[in-house]
Write a structure and sequence with these properties.
- The chain is α/β, with parallel strands linked by helices.
- The protein is built from 6 helices and 7 strands, in the order ααβαβββαβααββ.
- The chain has 2 domains: 35 residues; 173 residues, 3-Layer(aba) Sandwich (Rossmann fold).
- Strands 3-2-1-4-5-7-6 form a 7-stranded mixed sheet.
- The longest helix is centred in the first third of the chain and has 34 residues.
- It is globular.
- 30% of the residues are buried.
- About 10% of the residues have low confidence.
- InterPro entries: Methyltransf_11, SAM-dependent_MTases_sf.
């Protein structure tokens, strides 16, 4: 009986230690991510992924946030639209006042614009919010339809990896592995032409017709 108690106590101690270690690693990962946050928010690195000639853009968001004005300034003097592909979800509330930026509600299967009318479709932390595979595939297909001959789709996402699982625990399951984006891109006739590791957890991909 005493031996069983000792075993149970030891198991509990190890569980508590593992939990504390996981929590500490998650805090460390968050701190690293925040330190790189300044680089992420400046968005200057984005030029490495953008097409050479940029006149028109479509910025795809999922619940518009404070990064949109900064992104628009980086894309200037190009002109374009900002769309929210999950605006139909009533629970989503924009963090920007309506007068700050004009956002067009859209669905991933029907993005606004004529075929070949934009030079870049930029999806920033938006694609993973589409929880249905058909919606993700539709987003990539619509991006391909809208892109000009030398246009690019630029995807900014966190990917589910061993690193993100260790750092964020169950929260990492909201993200998809990079294979999912390659799959959706391939179905749309897009291929990876450039990448940029922005932080230990955030990657930028440039996709073009292939």
């Amino acid at each position: 009986m005493r031996k069983a108690v000792r075993v149970a106590v030891a198991a509990g101690a190890w569980t508590a230690l593992a939990g504390a270690t996981w929590f500490a690693l998650a805090r460390l990962a968050t701190a690293v991510s925040l330190r790189r946050g300044a680089e992420l928010q400046r968005w200057r690195w984005l030029h490495e992924l953008l097409p050479l000639h940029l006149r028109r853009f479509l910025l795809v968001t999922a619940g518009v946030d404070e990064s949109v004005p900064a992104l628009r300034s980086v894309l200037a003097p190009a002109r374009g639209l900002v769309v929210d592909v999950i605006a139909h979800r009533r629970a989503v509330v924009s963090l920007l006042r309506p007068e700050t930026v004009r956002v067009i509600p859209a669905r991933p299967e029907s993005l606004p614009g004529r075929p070949g009318s934009v030079d870049v479709v930029l999806a920033v932390f938006a694609a993973h919010e589409l929880r249905d595979a058909a919606e993700r595939e539709a987003l990539f297909a619509e991006a391909r339809r809208l892109l000009s001959a030398d246009g690019r789709m630029v995807l900014i996402e966190q990917h589910r990896t061993v690193r993100t699982l260790a750092a964020f625990g169950p929260g990492a399951w909201q993200f998809y592995p990079s294979e999912e984006w390659r799959r959706a891109a391939a179905l749309a006739g897009l291929k990876v032409v450039a990448t940029r590791q922005v932080s230990p957890f955030v990657t930028g991909w440039a996709l073009a017709a292939g």
